[in-house]
Design goal:
Elements: E1 2-7, E2 14-18, E3 21-26, E4 33-34, E5 45-49, E6 54-58, E7 63-65, E8 68-70, E9 74-77, E10 82-85, E11 88-95, H1 98-101, E12 132-133, H2 143-160, H3 163-168, H4 173-189, H5 201-213, H6 218-222, E13 227-233, E14 238-242, E15 245-249, H7 256-267, E16 280-284, E17 290-294, E18 304-308, H8 317-323, H9 328-339, E19 344-348, H10 354-362, E20 371-375, E21 387-391, H11 405-412, E22 419-422, H12 429-437, E23 445-449, H13 453-465, H14 473-483, E24 486-492, E25 498-510, E26 513-527, E27 533-539, H15 547-552
Parallel strand pairs: 3-4, 12-15, 19-23, 19-24, 20-21, 20-22, 22-23
Antiparallel strand pairs: 1-2, 1-11, 3-5, 5-6, 6-9, 7-8, 7-10, 10-11, 13-14, 13-18, 14-15, 16-17, 17-18, 24-25, 25-26, 26-27
Helix pairs in contact: 2-4, 2-5, 4-5, 11-12, 13-14
């Protein structure tokens, strides 16, 4: 851990401790160390700290170390060195001497009181270091130098090759890619600078090609199957989630324009747009991955992109059992519920795995039925033959042509559906969905944002009211109680794992309240040595009210799954 002292004219001194890692310094609020001092630019420089030393790399703002000015280079900082960043001064104190902090052994004659512990910076309390995921193969210290080379090369590329005009002219993708690669190779081969250690012209060329005709740094991240989510917070901050753990990557865009260019390449083929008049957009990649983008002025850190990746080989129910997300008994029960045409709602928070579970439950649907899917951005991956996929459409630049989920739900009823699968219920379409379920369209599936099965019912009531009709609350609850049979609650736990925590049945109305009973629940035992949650899925002992329906349909279901492994002491 390395200690520094920050001095800004007119303000109190601030002592900070840098754990091993890279810290971007500048006037931008997105910086790790924000210096609001004259002469400090948004992306000024960055510190590279280890357990034993400290380095500083200029990002274009210019730095001064012990009276000597440096530009576009990395400088080793010695204990006692003074670093000037604009009008701010940073004094390097050196590594923290933990041995010196230990209290002296007690004196047998006179034992002095133990020294008070060193004060800890308030902003570091509870802070955990985010692991770095190396993807580019370019050392972090060399990244600012590489970014500058890429910036100059990109300017030269635009002078020699008008890519936008070639696209508009209908140039084939293969020809466009070959021309861009050849031109970039020529530009890089003309470089006369010495590249830093670990940096090759091939790596720079690869990144430039991706930025010129692809999605920039996203190309490599999308190709990595272990990554489930990609988050771009401006050009310099690219995060990913892998196995439920958040990582910061060593990837970066050249500037905001490159991020916006990547967004436009995603949304343009879908007929969608993003600009100041429409600064938010939902879209999808060719592989079905879900994309959300938002740009300034709504985003204060620059253009942001969030990509929810989907596996090229969709997960099956056996995979969820293997991961511990669900038990075999719960899977068998849900399989029977789908085949019995029970209306099912999957409830959960953001990133809990609702869509993944919806895909898996959809695999239980018979091939002999006509299935209609309705989504904002198509991401469901049904494998049945007879599937009609519908996708909403935003308004055009003139504010016309919008087709929302509710319009699609109403239209789907005229398409002779056997099953209706709604990707997510988030508005007034909830009323149309309930009416469809209550008028002969059984076996529908959808998802909803809620933290518990009971919260899911309250959320559904709210969505129905958003339809714009002044309906009595009791009438809404009666519709819900008669339409919905099963609520499946899935949660993302603190260790990053996804667990189906409840399978609950809606039984009836008692007065003005909807009654429910748990069929299966998840019981947590504790945590193991690796910080993973331990527990098991257990039955509640309650039998579903539609057992007779199961027998009449000729479906096989072992009744012992409702009692096997019950928690000791439970009384039924």
């Amino acid at each position: 851990m390395y200690e520094i002292l920050i001095r800004i004219p007119g303000r109190d001194e601030i002592k900070a401790r840098l754990v091993p890692g890279t810290y971007r310094v500048g006037s931008s609020p997105a910086s790790h160390l924000t210096l609001n001092a004259p002469g400090v630019v948004p992306r000024h420089c960055q510190f590279i700290a280890t357990d034993t030393d400290l380095k500083i790399a200029d990002l274009g703002g210019g730095i001064e170390v012990d009276g000597e000015a440096f530009h576009d280079t990395t400088v080793h900082i010695r204990p006692g060195s003074r670093v000037r960043i604009g009008e701010a001064e940073i004094l390097a104190l050196g590594t923290e001497d933990r041995e010196a902090q230990k209290p002296e052994p007690p004196n047998p004659v006179s034992a002095p009181p133990p020294p008070a512990p060193a004060p800890r910076p308030l902003n570091n309390q509870g802070k955990h270091e985010i692991p770095i995921l190396a993807v580019s193969g370019i050392p972090l210290a060399a990244r600012p130098f590489v970014q500058e080379i890429k910036r100059l090369a990109h300017i030269e590329l635009l002078k020699r090759l008008n890519l936008k005009r070639m696209v508009l002219a209908g140039t084939a993708q293969s020809d466009l890619e070959k021309k861009a690669k050849d031109t970039i190779h020529e530009i890089i081969s003309e470089l006369t600078v010495t590249l830093p250690a670990g940096v090759t012209t091939d790596k720079i060329e690869r990144e430039l090609v991706h930025e010129a005709i692809g999605l920039g740094p996203l190309e490599d991240l999308i190709a990595m199957p272990e990554i489930s989510e990609i988050m771009v917070n401006g050009p310099d901050s690219v995060y990913v989630e892998t196995k439920g753990v958040l990582h910061k990557t060593d990837m970066a865009f050249a500037d905001n324009h490159q991020v916006i260019a990547a967004i436009e390449r995603i949304v343009s083929p879908l007929g969608r747009r993003i600009d100041e008049s429409s600064p938010m957009v939902d879209a999808r990649l060719q592989d079905g991955s879900r994309v959300n983008a938002i740009i300034p002025p709504l985003s204060l850190v620059g253009p942001t992109i969030t990509i929810r990746k989907f596996s090229r080989n969709p997960l099956q129910i056996d995979d969820l059992v293997r991961f511990g997300s669900i038990s075999y008994e719960m899977a068998d029960f849900l399989n029977v519920c789908v085949k019995l045409r029970k209306n099912i709602i999957i409830s959960g928070g953001t990133g809990s795995g609702k869509t993944t579970l919806l895909n898996i439950l959809s695999s239980f649907l018979p091939d002999t039925e006509r299935i209609i899917t309705i989504e904002d951005a198509a991401e469901l991956q049904l494998r049945q033959d007879h599937v009609v996929r519908l996708e909403s459409r935003p308004a055009n630049i003139e504010g016309k042509g919008e087709v929302n989920i509710r319009d699609l739900v109403r239209n789907s009823l005229r398409m002779r559906p056997d099953r209706i699968v709604i990707g997510e219920c988030r508005g007034g379409e909830a009323l149309d969905m309930l009416q469809a379920m209550n008028t002969g369209h059984d076996g529908s599936l959808t998802t909803i944002h809620a933290n518990t099965p009971r919260d899911a019912l309250s959320r559904l009531e709210t969505l129905v009211l958003m339809a714009g009709f002044d309906l009595p609350l009791r009438a809404i609850r009666e519709q819900i109680a008669s339409a919905i049979a099963i609520i499946v609650q899935i949660n993302r736990e603190k260790d990053g794992t996804r667990k189906v925590t409840n399978i609950s049945e809606i039984t009836r109305m008692e007065g003005d309240m909807i009654t429910m009973q748990d069929i299966f629940t998840y019981h947590q035992d504790g945590w193991d040595a690796n910080g993973k949650m331990t527990g098991r899925h257990v039955p509640s002992g309650n039998l579903p009210s539609f057992m007779e329906d199961i027998k009449r349909a000729g479906l096989k279901l072992d009744l012992e799954i409702f009692t096997r492994g019950m928690l000791k002491g439970e009384e039924r």
